[in-house]
Amino acid sequence: MIPSKRSILARVGAEAFIGPNHIAAQEPAATVGRRTPSGANKPGDFGGEALPEWLRGELPDIKRNLALNSRTNHLALLLMLSIFTECCGWRRTMTFESPSHSSAVEIWQTGIANDFGTRVALVVDGRRTFVFENRRDALVSFVHVYWSPEERQASVLLSGLNYFVLAWDLRSGRPIPFESLRNDFARSIETTYRVPKGVDPFKWTGEAEAQKAFFALHPDIHLSYR
To answer: pTM of the predicted model, to two decimals?
Structure first.
């Protein structure tokens, strides 16, 4: 009995992808196929059944092409997984130390494409605690940090596609109302960036002028979207 073209191609494809020995090992002994006079099935002989003439010359090319496609698909999958991991992994992109250098506020963003997510970490006495995370429209173009006298409190503003303000008590590490530091924070922005008189410093942080001034003040900050 000569096997059909469909059954032959299916068998060739299976052997090319996972190997003839593995196929034979998974099949029940009664269905492995007829045995050759030597008493064992050979890879590609289809259980001792004769191959049609039209397939004899094409069989090596078919196997080679199927194996090549399999390797190509595996490489493409590995590449996509690598890119996915990089985009979803985190890296520190900004660090703002306190005047005494005993504490810091860190901005962490996603790897290759920094605008896929933003995290804020508070570092006190060498201990890092992530206190905020945003994964929506996470493009950050302006950041300002204010430290209270004696560095008992800290606050941060992030501006870009979104706008966030945060504040903490450094001794306890707990969040506090930003409004308790709002006036001092506003004066800090005005002093640092020479905001024009009569302009709301918080609204100013969303302007292109503010973003340009921020990166000029921090030339060591390099982001994928800038």
So the answer is: 0.63
Strand partners, 91: 109
Length of the chain: 226
Q: And the tokens for 71? A: 């390797």
The answer to whether 205 and 189 are in contact (CB under 8 A) is yes
Tell me the sheet residues that pair with 118: 109, 134
Six token digits for residue 36: 């050759």
At 155-173, the pLDDT tens digits run: 999 999 889 999 999 989 8
Amino acid identity, residue 54?
W
Which amino acid would we find at residue 117? G
Which residue type is seen at 141? S
Q: What is the DSSP letter of 149?
A: G
CB 50 within 8 A of CB 97: no
Buried b or exposed e, range 151-162, using 16+ CB within 10 angstroms = eebbbbbbbbee
- Token digits for 127? 């201990």
Burial class (CB in 10 A: 0-12, 13-18, 19+), 51: middle
3 state SS of 198: coil
For residues 167 and 176, the answer to whether their CB atoms sit within 8 Å is: yes
